[in-house]
Amino acid sequence: MDYGRPELADRLAAAYAAGTLRGPARRRFEALLPAHPGLRDATTGWEERLMPLTLALEPATPPARVWERIQARIDGPGATPVAARGGRFSVLGFWRGVAALASVAVLVLAVLLVARAPVPPPVIVVLSATGAPAGGVAPAVFVASISGDGRALVTRPLVEVGVRADRALELWAIPPGGAPRSLGVISSSGVTVVQKAKALEGAGTLAVTLEPPGGSPTGAPTGPVLYAGRLTL
User: Fold this and answer.
1) Is the dihedral of CA 208, 214, 191, 176 positive or negative?
2) Is 53:152 a contact under the CB 8 Å cutoff?
3) Which of 81, 94, 192, 204 is the most exposed place for a label (fewest CB within 10 A)?
4) Owning domain of residue 110
5) What pLDDT, in 10s, does the model give residues 73-117?
6) How far apart, in whole angstroms, are the C-alpha atoms of residue 26 and residue 173?
7) How many domains does the chain divide into?
8) Which long-range contacts (CB under 8 A, 24 or more apart) does 125-129 make?
């Protein structure tokens, strides 16, 4: 595989930064980074573009069982029970320390990124339901976060949208007086990183339509417009 090709490096870096590159492929990519300046530059670029988009995501508190599983994996089999090592307050102190170190790491990373180049704030677009439920889809609200340079776009519904198995949601950029341009199929329940952000140029509206699996077969919307929002870049 020719990792020197800019389009390949950009595609892999985008998947890595978004967290969609997983398993052996992710480990192989990490092993290649030290020897490939092009991959490193592409990864840094995507991390700088995607980091501001996380400001639109509300923090989630993990349930207690998550910490218990993490503690069990750290301790391994046959470890001394937590209670025998100081109980709840000992564990609480440990995780407070971890949280403090993580906060410092985030601040350092943010300072380094800002020092490299100023990153414009993201543009947030709210896509509201356009009418009554259609095709088994319940009313909801989508949020689209667009990086300041306009190259990266992330969508997510504020609540999970119920979509039938034989239907999909497709995102469109619509310029004033022009034909809709597809940005691809988006998730009805989680985050989607859109890598066709060039289609945003000149767009005044973002819209989501109900389409067959895989998206519109014609290149133009075929189903009803379920969600829409004004876009100003």
Assistant:
1) negative
2) yes
3) 81
4) 64-116
5) 776 665 555 444 455 444 555 555 556 555 555 555 555 555 555
6) 31
7) 3
8) 125/206, 125/229, 125/230, 125/231, 126/229, 127/206, 127/207, 127/208, 127/227, 127/228, 127/229, 128/227, 128/228, 128/229, 129/226, 129/227
